[in-house]
Amino acid sequence: MKTYHIIVVPGDGIGPELVDAAIQVLEKIQELSGDFRFSYAVHEAGANFYQKQGVSISVETLEAIRRADATMKGPVPDGTEAGVLGGVLRSGFDLYANVRPIKLFPKVAIPLKDRPPQSIDYIIVRENTEGLYASRARGLMLEQAATDTLLLTRKGCERICRFAFQVARDKSRGAPEDGRRRVTLVEKSNVLRSFYFFRQIFAGVAREFPEIEAENLYVDAASAALIMRPQHFQVIVTENMFGDILSDLGGATIGGLGMCPSANMGDERAYFEPIHGSAPDLVGKNKANPLSQIMAAGMMLEYLGRKKEALLLEKAILQALEKEGFHISSNGLVEEGSRRVAAVLREELAGCYERGI
Ligand code: IPM
Ligand code: MN
What is the mean pLDDT of the segment spanning 17-26? Predict the structure, then answer.
C-alpha cells in the first residue's frame, strides 16, 4: 500500500489543536479510501523551540523535511523567530510559490453585504522567496536610518508568473463574474522600476497562455477592488509583501484567517499551513477555527496526487457548513467549539464516500 511520509510541525499556541483536528480528518480519509496511508513524524519547531534551543528549527528537522513527501505545519507566533523560520523554510527549500485560496463558503458570517457563496473564489499566488522580504533578517539598521532592499530577479518573476498561469488554467472554475480564466498581476510600476521589470516579464509569460486573460492592477487599486468587486478575480500573482498583505485582506472578506489555508510550493517540495498566527489568547478555549489547517491538509492531498480525496474533503466542508453542523461567527470563531469541527467533518466524509461524491 502506498505510504506518504509526512512531517508534522505543530507549531505554537493553537497550532497543536489545529494540527490535531487536521490529522483526525486525514485519518478518516485514509480509512475510507483504503488504498493509501500516512505515516507521521512529529517535529518541534517555532517560538517555544527557539526559547529552549536558541534556533527556530533543528538541522535534523530540516533534513527530515527534505526527505519527506510533504510537511504539515501549524502556525507560529508573529515574532522575528517566526519570520526567520518562514525564511528558512521558504528560501531554504526554494518554495517560491505561496498559494493562498480565498474562497467564500456557505453560511459563514462576513463583513461584506449580499455576497452569495460562489461570488468570491480566487487564488493569490504570492512570490515567496524574493521581493521586499528578500531582506528578511538581512536589513540594515543604523542609528539614524534603516533600509531593506526589494529584489526581483528575472528567474523569480518568470517562474512565479508561469506558476500563476498554470493555476489559472488548472483551476476548476474561472472568475465568478464571467467564468473567464484571468491572471491579474498586482504591482506598483507607476512608482517603482522593479515592478515595471515584473510587469514586462509578466507580459512575456502571458503570451505563452493566449487562452487566459492577463491584466495589471496597481496594489492600491487592488486593495479596493478586493472589497468592491472580488468576483472579478480568478488568480492574482504578486510580489512577496504585497501578497502577504492582500491575503490577510482577502481573508477578512471570507470569514477571517481561520478560513485561509496555504501551500508553500517549490519544484520538489512543499509545506502546508494556515495563513494566521498562533493566537495565544485562544489556546485551550476550544474556539479557534481549524478549517484553515484542515483545508491546508486538503491542499496537501491534492499535491500528493490525491485529487479525488481533496475534492471529497472540500465537498464535506461545504455540506457541513450548508447543514449548519457548526457555525463560523462574525469574529471568525467556531460557535460550537473547534473540536466539533473535525467530528462533524468525519461524519460528513463518510456520507460523501458512501454516495461517491
Ligand atoms: C505569512 C506570515 C509570515 C510571512 C510571518 C509570520 C513572517 O505573515 O505567512 O503570511 O509573511 O512571512
Ligand atoms: Mn502574513
Answer: 97
Q: How far is the CA of 244 from the centre of ligand 2 (A)?
A: 5
- For the record, the C-alpha cell of 170 comes out as 488548472
Minimal-distance CA residue to ligand 1 atom 7: 83
Q: State how far the Cα of 324 lies from the Cα of 340, in Å rounded to an integer.
A: 12
State the distance from the centre of ligand 1 to the C-alpha of 265, rounded, in angstroms.
15
- Based on its alpha-carbon atoms, the radius of gyration of the chain, rounded to whole angstroms, reads 20
Which three cell numbers, joined as nine digits, stand for 123? 487564488
Which grid cell sits at 85?
523560520
Identify the burial level of 62 via C-beta atoms within 10 angstroms of its C-beta, where 0-12 means exposed, 13-18 middle and 19 or more buried: middle
Task: Give the amino acid at 1.
Answer: M
24 closest CA partner among 347, 276, 335, 351:
347
**Beta sheet of 235-238, edge-to-edge order:** 36-42, 2-9, 70-73, 270-274, 261-265, 97-103, 121-127, 235-238, 182-187, 213-218
CB 58 within 8 A of CB 2: no
Residues with a CB atom less than 6 Å from ligand 1: 78, 82-83, 86, 244, 275
For residue 220, give Cα distances in angstroms to 187, 231, 246: 9, 18, 10
pLDDT given for residue 326 in this prediction: 96
DSSP line for 29-84: HHHHH-SEEEEEEE---SHHHHHHHSSSS-HHHHHHHHHSSEEEE----SSHHHHH
Pairing of strands 235-238, 182-187: parallel
Q: Over the stretch 220-269, which tens digit does the pLDDT of each residue have?
A: 999 999 999 999 999 999 999 999 999 999 999 999 999 999 999 999 99
Helices vs strands, H then E, count in the chain: 11, 12
Task: Pick the closest to residue 76 from 6, 10, 7 (CA basis).
Answer: 10
